[in-house]
């Protein structure tokens, strides 16, 4: 039996760091409808994605988790990859993502956490302690850091989008992706 697990791509960054903007630029669209047909990243791509929208900025992580589970369940039979974003929050608040990561750890997905180190909106970079904390919770999946500084630079932001597209392509083709 040939078992090829579906892939789950998780864009991770600080709150208000440009994660949603990144997804919008990747797919060249502003709206995503997770309960409709999967979409392609580009017309040349054969792989399709279900994009799970980010919750409102101050929504509770458990509500976001319920939405993630519902969408994944809805597309159980679809041969597609999933892409979503989460904010890197480990502070025991309502936005704490530990429960979401625990759920991901229990799935059969091949998971790629893509950390956007630099914020689009302000001169802020994710600290190594936050990455280490994420590493302690991730039991299923790999973590990849995109560390290009992009703050308010369209050119650098476009470069990071190009890096992410290449990363996605290599991961979908099964090529080793060891960017950490």
Walk me through this protein's architecture.
Strands 2-3-4-1-5-6 form a six-stranded mixed sheet, sandwiched between helices. It has one domain: Rossmann fold. Helix content is 34%, strand content 18%. The longest helix has 20 residues, at 154-173. The protein has 180 residues and is of the alpha/beta class. The mean pLDDT is 92.
Instruction: Please tell me the total number of domains.
Output: 1
CATH class: Alpha Beta
By CATH, the topology is Rossmann fold
Using DSSP, what is the number of strands? 6
CATH architecture: 3-Layer(aba) Sandwich
The helix fraction, in percent, is 25-40%
Task: List the main descriptive attributes of the protein structure presented here.
180 residues, alpha/beta, Rossmann fold, 6 strands
Short précis:
By secondary structure, the protein is of the alpha/beta class. 34% of the residues lie in helices and 18% in strands.
List the helices and strands and how they pair.
Blueprint: E1 7-13, H1 19-27, E2 39-40, E3 48-52, H2 61-74, E4 81-87, H3 98-105, E5 110-116, H4 128-137, E6 142-146, H5 154-173
Parallel strand pairs: 1-4, 1-5, 3-4, 5-6
Antiparallel strand pairs: 2-3
């Amino acid at each position: 039996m040939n078992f090829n697990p579906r892939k789950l791509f998780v864009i991770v960054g600080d709150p208000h760091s440009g994660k949603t903007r990144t997804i919008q630029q990747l797919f060249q669209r502003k709206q995503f409808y997770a309960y409709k047909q999967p979409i392609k990243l580009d017309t040349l791509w054969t792989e399709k994605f279900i994009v799970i929208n980010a919750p409102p900025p101050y929504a509770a992580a458990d509500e976001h988790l319920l939405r993630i589970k519902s969408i994944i369940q809805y597309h159980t039979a679809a041969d597609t990859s999933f892409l979503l974003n989460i904010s890197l929050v480990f502070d025991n608040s309502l936005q704490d993502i530990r429960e979401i990561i625990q759920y991901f750890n229990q799935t059969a997905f091949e998971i790629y956490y893509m950390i956007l180190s630099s914020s689009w909106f302000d001169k802020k970079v994710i600290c190594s302690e936050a990455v280490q904390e994420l590493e302690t919770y991730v039991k299923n999946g790999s973590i990849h850091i995109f560390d290009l500084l992009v703050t308010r630079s369209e050119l650098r932001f476009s470069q990071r989008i190009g890096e992410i597209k290449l990363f996605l392509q290599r991961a979908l083709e099964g090529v080793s992706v060891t960017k950490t």
